[in-house]
Structures are given as C-alpha cells and as structure tokens.
C-alpha cells in the first residue's frame, strides 16, 4: 500500500463526468497461464512468458515490492511474471505510477562507474529504471528494478514510451470500465464522445517511438486541488477547475489506460488498476462519475492527442510546482516532505 506521505509530479489531465453511473465489470478474458503458476516458487532469475495469450494491445507493468515480482499485462491479460530485485534499505525503490521515458538497449550508468544496464527503460530522470541485472533473491539495487536478462529483452520488445509502470507493495488485477466517451456535461457529451472514440481507434505508439517522433499525452485529476491537467511530454498544456460531487468523500486513487473503441463504436473502454486502498474511496467507475470539468469546451478541443495507451490518473492527493519535476512523468511517488 502506498505511503500517505506521497507527492504528485509531472503529469496529466482532461476528464470530466456527468451524473451517469459508469458500469465497472471484470475484464472479460481467459485465465492466463501465469495465473495458474505459484509465483512464490519462482527461483531468482526465473520467469514465465506467454505473449500468445494476448498478441496485441496496450501494455501495463506492475512491480510488486512485497513479492519481488514483475507482472506484465497486455490488453488487460497477464502475459508474463518475473522475479526481480528492487531497492535495498537506504535506496528504496519509490512507489507510485511512472511512465517509460526512454529506452536504451546498451545503457551504462553515469552514476555508478559506467555500470552496464542492458535493456534500460527509464522511469525517472533521477535514476530509477527497469533493466537487466543481478538477482540475488532479495532487494539489492540502488533503487532500480533489476530483471533477468532474457525477460528484460522480452519486455523491451513490446513496450513503448508512455507505458505506465505501477510500483506498489502488492499487485492488483485490472478491471474494465465502460463509459460513453470522456463524460462531460450533457451539452458537450456528443462532441466529446466522438472525439474520444476517434482517439481510441488510433494505433498505440510503436515500440521504437521517441519523444522526438511521438508525443506522450497523459491526464491527471486531483481531488485535493479540485483541478484537471493535461501534460504532453511532461509539459502542462491545459488545466481546468473541476467540480466534485460530495467533495468530503474520497475519490480513491486509480490508474486508467485507454484501450479501444467499443465494438459498436458508441463509446470507449478504459482499463483500470487500483493503486492505493482508501477507506471510503470510490471504485474506478464511481470516481469518474463524481467529477465535472468546468472548462469543458477547451477539453473537447484537445482530446485529439489521446490514443490507445494514454493514461489517466484520479487521485485524492495534491499536486503543485514544488512537487513537479520537469519531464519526469512521475504521477505519484514516495517522498520525504
């Protein structure tokens, strides 16, 4: 469970809601083979990998600190589980929601004596990344998430910039949230729905995308600040006040990932992962149904930047200039404040 002493940094924005009740249902899928394996029996350096369970779709990675395991989902289906080694005492791996900022197959550390870090996928510019490394069976890194060499190669081949990596004390199962588009006030609903469905019909970024060739667009709604923000490549490009129904009740903390348009083309589907248990907090569907963006006309205009794989976070935590790090794309992380 994430610490209450957390900050928000670097991301996100646009979404609003009507009073429509959103249906939240388990993601329809076959039970992945990895779900039938006793992950606790995996020896250090071992993993399971079954990409055939879901050959296409947006990817999300969950790092479970308590289990020392990394779970990989594609299109809502778990396709792999691997052992890992996270930060040792004094160099704890921060918990929170991060996006992949940079990929480098042959990276060497500028901090630790040019140490090789094969298949590096950067999560913060401050030095936290996924990469191949030694796995002794316990937390032993300087904060990075070390992976088996072969597993690091496999996930390097399916990820792209902007993929969310959730680092938490325990893993969570994804659920699907269905709703009619981006849910703005009634006068904007049709236009917003058309915009979000068009975005959901796009392809996600290619695995070789860079910030020079593709924009990473993400969204944040902060209940504490009663604000929504959109960030593009780590730079805030839009913000709006929001109204929250029953503001004294927690929204909870949720990560949503845009998946695809519904088969009938009438709406869009988001995949959600809970990221922190909050007493009295809403489900992922309920949280969105309580939020309304005030500057909805501007929100509709900029929806064109979204695509499958775009990330939305709803949180009770505050954000501010003192917690944002330029271009770091960190949504939530542990911090001493």
> What is Rg?
19 Å
Taken as a percent bin, the fraction of beta residues is 25-35%
Q: Can you tell me the residue ranges where pLDDT is under 50 for at least 5 consecutive residues?
A: 1-37, 321-326
Classification by helices and strands: mainly beta
> In total, how many beta strands?
21
Query: Total helix count?
Result: 4
Give a brief rundown of this model.
10% of the residues lie in helices and 34% in strands.
What does this structure look like?
The protein starts with 5 loop residues before the first strand and ends with a strand. β4 and β5 (69-74) form a beta hairpin. The protein is built from four helices and 21 strands. The protein is globular and about 55 Å long. A nine-stranded mixed sheet has the order 2-13-18-17-20-14-15-16-19. It is mostly beta strands. It has helices at residues 149-156, 186-200, 284-289, 296-301, and strands spanning 6-8, 23-26, 47-49, 59-64, 69-74, 77-83, 96-99, 102-108, 116-122, 129-132, 145-147, 164-168, 175-179, 217-222, 227-232, 235-244, 253-261, 268-276, 291-293, 311-315, 332-334.
Question: What does the secondary structure layout of this molecule look like, with pairings?
Answer:
Layout: E1 6-8, E2 23-26, E3 47-49, E4 59-64, E5 69-74, E6 77-83, E7 96-99, E8 102-108, E9 116-122, E10 129-132, E11 145-147, H1 149-156, E12 164-168, E13 175-179, H2 186-200, E14 217-222, E15 227-232, E16 235-244, E17 253-261, E18 268-276, H3 284-289, E19 291-293, H4 296-301, E20 311-315, E21 332-334
Parallel strand pairs: 4-12, 10-11, 14-20
Antiparallel strand pairs: 1-21, 2-13, 3-6, 4-5, 5-6, 7-12, 7-21, 8-9, 9-10, 13-18, 14-15, 15-16, 16-19, 17-18, 17-20
């Amino acid at each position: 469970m994430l610490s209450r002493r957390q900050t928000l940094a670097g991301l996100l924005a646009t979404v609003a809601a009507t009073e429509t009740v959103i249906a939240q249902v388990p993601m329809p899928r076959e039970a992945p083979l990895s779900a039938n394996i006793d992950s606790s029996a995996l020896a250090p350096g071992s993993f399971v990998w079954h990409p055939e369970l879901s050959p296409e779709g947006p990817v999300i990675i969950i790092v479970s600190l308590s289990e020392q395991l990394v779970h990989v989902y594609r299109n809502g289906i778990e396709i792999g589980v691997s052992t890992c080694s996270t930060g040792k005492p004094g160099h704890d791996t921060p918990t929170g929601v991060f996006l992949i900022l940079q990929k480098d197959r042959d990276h060497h550390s500028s901090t630790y004596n040019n140490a090789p870090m094969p298949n590096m996928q950067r999560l913060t510019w401050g030095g936290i990344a996924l990469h191949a490394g030694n796995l002794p069976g316990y937390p032993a890194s300087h904060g990075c998430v070390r992976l088996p060499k072969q597993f690091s190669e496999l996930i390097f081949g399916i990820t792209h910039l902007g993929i969310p990596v959730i680092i938490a004390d325990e893993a969570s199962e994804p659920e699907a949230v269905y709703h009619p588009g981006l849910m703005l006030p009634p006068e904007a609903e049709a236009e917003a729905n058309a915009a979000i469905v068009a975005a959901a019909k796009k392809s996600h970024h290619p695995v070789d995308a860079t910030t020079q060739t593709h924009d990473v667009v993400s969204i944040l709604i902060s209940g504490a600040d009663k604000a929504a923000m959109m960030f593009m490549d780590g730079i805030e490009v839009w913000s709006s006040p929001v109204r929250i129904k029953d503001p004294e009740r927690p929204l909870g903390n949720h990560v949503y990932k845009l998946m695809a348009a519904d088969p009938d083309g009438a709406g869009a589907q988001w995949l959600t992962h809970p990221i922190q248990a909050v007493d009295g907090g809403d489900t992922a569907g309920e949280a969105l149904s309580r939020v309304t963006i005030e500057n909805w006309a501007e929100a509709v205009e900029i929806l064109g930047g979204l695509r499958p794989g775009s990330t939305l976070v709803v949180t009770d935590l505050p954000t501010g200039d003192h917690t944002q790090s330029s271009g770091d794309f960190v949504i939530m992380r542990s911090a001493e404040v």
